[in-house]
Amino acid sequence: MQKMELDLANRFTYAWDTSYTDNRGNTIDTTMGDGLAKISTVHTVTGSASTFSNQVAANPSFSKGALVAGKKLGQRGTIDNLGINTPFAPNYIITSDDEDTVLAVKELLNATADITSANANTYNNYPNATYKHIASALVCTSATGVRDTTKEKFWFLVDSKLSSLFLTVISQPYFTTPTPKSNGEEPLSGSWLFTSGADYGICEVSARGTVGSKGTGV
Amino acid sequence: MPANNYSGNSNTLPQLLDVLNRTFVPYQESYKGVFRDCDIVIKDAKGRNTGNSTLYAENIITDRYAGIRVDGDQTPISPLQYGYEKALVVNSITQAVNISYGLHTFGRANDTLDRMQMIVE
To answer: Does the beta-carbon distance from A3 to B13 stay under 8 Å?
Structure first.
């Protein structure tokens, strides 16, 4: 289960990469259908010469201004395969558990006043219902389980209606045990061997509906 | 995990299996993955013996806006546009833990259980 979660989170951890190497040395393809990384400034479409970017300009760290910039980018840049603008209404904010980033998101979503306003009781444009916030340490955890501090500031806006991130499962997690007969030992070593596993795959067809920023300011 | 209240004092295999059966199944059934269970991830079950790959494609689209038809003219036929495709490959993801003879004979029960818990989760 943890591996499945890590694999899904790594789609965001490696959003700027076209592949990564997992904890067993296998190369995991993270390209979209257009052959580019999830976050790219030059995503292509099949029926038009138009391209679109889903990287927030200058990779700002999360703030109200950065959120506005990200949403505008999605609204202006999201196009279908004929190059026609597609509505973009993000309902998820995905971040790591980096405290600065998490606090910035929480302040924005929970404020009773516009957080940049000096006036009390100003209407909050971002009540909790607007966005679901996923703050997971796995977003900045590499495929080998190492925390990558260069990815702690990553943040993404995702419109789940446009998402094409598929998880296909043939076998749900299972657990196999030795049989109690003869107390289950391997004859030569006397060991008990327990195995857990699952059969699944992950792929993403299009980056449409996701915008992202590294949060590094560059 | 409920296994934390395990207080067995013997590392017999039946005793371990009993603990695991009481913990693994309920744990998996009640598990809520932050990513797995969010709307962003589209869950698609696949049957056994149906191959290890599935080709996913974007919807075929057409121009979403209709236009004025001048009287007497034919309605222009909008193009059908295919999108990108991406093949998903299912992998077998597994992990094993070896409870050596020394561990299950001389070791403490909780040491054994700690190792088991790691792969259960």
So the answer is: no
